[in-house]
Amino acid sequence: MDAAAIVNLVKERLGIRTTVRDTYLDAIAKSVITELEDEKGLTLDAENFNHLLFCADYATWRYQSRDESGAMPRHLQFRLHNLILHNRRLP
To answer: Element (H or E) spanning 29, and its range?
Structure first.
């Protein structure tokens, strides 16, 4: 999975046009990829737009909720569970 593509999508979603936050956003994108692959056991495919957009949405939520405590939004939980179930069915 390409962290730069995730960062670009997050910036587009948030309307960020400068590179001031790129270092922080890149770290978030890489941590999302690592969490999904290493902790959740997913095999992410950079060509799969569902994977790419989930990573971007997850990174956006992480960025926006950095000073808040609370659970992952239900729509992200639902999509994550679907990704995990789908990955288990693949050879």
So the answer is: helix 22-34
The pLDDT tens digits for 36-75 are: 999 999 999 999 999 999 999 999 999 999 877 788 999 9
Looking at the 3D structure of the chain, how many domains does it have? 1
Give the domain range for residue 49. Answer: 3-89
Closest among 58, 14, 57 to 35, alpha carbons compared: 58
- Please answer whether residues 87 and 72 qualify as being in contact, where contact means their C-beta atoms are separated by less than 8 angstroms: no
Residue 84's contacts (CB-CB under 8 Å, 6 or more residues apart) are 40, 41, 42
Cα atoms found within 13 Å of the Cα of residue 28, Cβ hemisphere only = 24
Task: Give the residue carrying structure tokens 């046009």.
Answer: 17
Residue 66 three-state SS: coil
